[in-house]
Amino acid sequence: HAGRNNVCFYGDILHLKSIGREHVAIQARLSDAIRHGALQTFYQPIVSASTGQVYAVEALARWKDGNGWISPELFIPMAEKVGLIQELSSVVAEQAFAQLRAWRDNGLTQKLMLNVSRTQLFTPQFVSSLIERLNTHRLRPEDVIIEITESVALTDYARQVKHLRQLMASGFQLAIDDFGTGYSSLSQLHDMPASVIKVDVSFAQRLDTDAGRRVMQAIVQLAQGLQLKVIVEGVESLEVSHFLRDLGVDFLQGFHFSEPVPAGVAELWMRLGL
Ligand code: C2E
Ligand code: CA
Ligand code: CA
Ligand code: CA
């Protein structure tokens, strides 16, 4: 969109498909960034709707490039495509676990929410190496909630469920990310071994209509009936946060509370509440 010899930054993601050459350049630079410490993990608080206390923080990858921050919406799919997701994820996990250890040492008890892609999930040694990494930092699976996006093709479904059961049996909690946007959301609830659903941002953005409010209410009732905890993502105003609290939503996440921030800022929220 901006012409040739440009790299797309935050906000320009959608134009990327049309510019193949820069794609290749970005791949080389991503690989470089992973190896040379240009990836930084940010944290976004997840807040108890009733108390305002920070219940957990979600680890979100950021790529600091000379000219600014490159969005994970751009580089995560790319990392998946070019086989760098494993490497990228271990950088994020390593930073997040080291940080969580430091927080534990400072008396903080919040959980860490970690995004796991399907590619990772299907790696044979995934669960054991995750546990090994936790052990290195004297952490337990109970400290971590694994977020899995539900947009998964049905052919992989049985295999996915098997891996997820293995994770849960090891003591991890599981959250279905982007709930409501994937394939056959509802039928997956039958045998997905999750304890939390994260309602996709798009639902919080439709609460200005009657239909939008009723859909949200129905999702919350469904989750409660299944004894799943509900996190709503994309809470951008006080009004929405009150509406969701009154609906019985357990936890809220969104710019109204905080955007994803560096660890030091997140720690402040964890201590003081939001
Ligand atoms: P996600 O897991 O759904 O993460 C939530 C995204 O929503 C984040 O985008 C966050 O900044 C954004 N968000 C938070 N609050 C609000 C709000 O109030 N309004 C709106 N409109 N958006 C909000 P971000 O950080 O750009 O991450 C994008 C996606 O990249 C994530 O979506 C996740 O799927 C992926 N991702 C990020 N880090 C990692 C990682 O370490 N591993 C993997 N596998 N995926 C990651
Ligand atoms: Ca997530
Ligand atoms: Ca999400
Ligand atoms: Ca998302």
UniProtKB/TrEMBL annotation:
The lineage of its organism: Bacteria, Pseudomonadati, Pseudomonadota, Betaproteobacteria, Neisseriales. This is Phytochrome-like protein cph2. Residues 23-274 form the EAL domain. It comes from Amantichitinum ursilacus.
